[in-house]
Amino acid sequence: MPRSFADANGDGIGDLAGIIDKLPYLEWLGIDAIWLTPPYPSPLRDGGYDITDFTAIHPDLGSLDDFRLLLDRAHACGIRLILDLVLNHTSVLHPWFQRARWAAPGTPEREFFVWRDDERGYADAPVLFRHFESSNWEWDPMAGQYYLHRFLRHQPDLNYANPAVEEAMLQVVDFWLEQGVDGFRLDAVPFLFEAEHSRCEGLPETHAFLRRLRSRVDACGRDVLLLAEAIQPVRESAPYLADDELHAAFDFALTAHLFAAVAHGRCDDLLHCLSHAQEMVPGCRWALPLRNHDELWLGDGHLVEQSVIEAILNGFPEGRDHWLNWGINRRLAPLLNGDPRPNTLLHGLLYSLPGLPCLYYGDELGMGDWPGLRDRDANRTPMAWTRAPNGGFSTAPDPLLVLPPITAPGFDYRMVNVEVQQQLSGSLLNWHHRMLTSRRLLPALRHGDVVWLESGHPGVLCYARHCPECQDGDAPQPSMTVVVAANVSSAGASTQLELGRWQGSRMRDTLWGCEFPAASDAWFVYLPAYGFFWWLVGE
Ligand code: GLC
Ligand code: CA
Question: Is 300 a catalytic residue?
């Protein structure tokens, strides 16, 4: 969230120059890519997802030149830049919408958006922001009609049935490709087309458009990542990963199952969810989010079963008090009561499961949140860099800050910040740095295949990641196997793992190099509460 990351010019708002200043930190931390939430001009009624100009930078954040500089500097650090691309809607203040509401019905200008004479259309499409809106339609007095908005009433849905809309948005994509961006996170991608008697999610027309988008992107001749945000069960998000469609999609069902596993100390449902995703789309194309700038989305029983939601709410009773729209509006660390053990366990899984692990800024510190702020702002407060006022985020006086820095007991920025944690060898931040460094050195974790292994304990998840001999960038890599075991329960677990297929091979813990007994078909191991290991198998 550029506005909350680092403020370089002291006006209280994070900016692109601030991100440039922090690139050495991000490089040290060990990430590969930055996803920027929408940096475009916007009245900010929805955190910048309500856009008035798709091909410019919000003046608070800097200029297009600053953006190009950020891109160059990030590339020089080996970090790629992924832009949020909001295809589904604009702001009501976008010139397209202003033009549409004055244009005569039936004209191409008017048809940039979806209009009706009454608000009865698409009745099976759920209201997504149900704590803010009661209908997907809003009356426009200028147009004398209702317009469709799947999100806030300030965000009219573009009408993809109009070919001019498709071309206009593809030109936006061309524009950012020309700037040199490395990928797009496709916001709210299921909702592009509508049809009666459906939830208006992932319709065949939407997939056909995405295939055209893919060809357009492929035509630029560079590797550009297309990542879908589709908060849907795997059976519905897998189609976005057809070979001629998108490269990656978030697995939000997994996020819910990870929390449920920790909540009830069992991993059978989690294993089922993981193996199902691999059956649908094998390999590493699922993006794995633990938290992000939205609420922890659990849904209405469509994304995951109601029993999974109940398990989470029983394990994290506070979730009920912080329920917003369709999920829990809290950051990771406070949701876990500040306990670092489930925190490292969950990230340890994220960093070793097949897929693209996603780390939300501040979660590497166990940063807190600010319940009670408007909408999802609770989770979007300024990054804590130092013990200085405002956590070193900005030199502006407090009232000018975009959002308040965290001062809640246990999470105060004078304690929980980058400067302090870099100095403490046992800190969460140094743990992430070490894990990400290890992951970088273990190609099996980054692009290996996965086999799920038997564990004799209901709370222990066990799997092996394997990659054959390969070329990793410029360096040849020998074949590699890493076995992972993770105890999702709050009690220690002594268990037997089925490692017969590596009979007699060396087993070394990758993080500390500690030698374990050679692999066998009845291999005993003790995992402390929330404990986990990554073992390198063989030489
Ligand atoms: C996505 C974004 C969210 C935004 C919504 C509407 O879900 O992650 O922050 O409010 O789309 O654009
Ligand atoms: Ca600023």
Answer: no
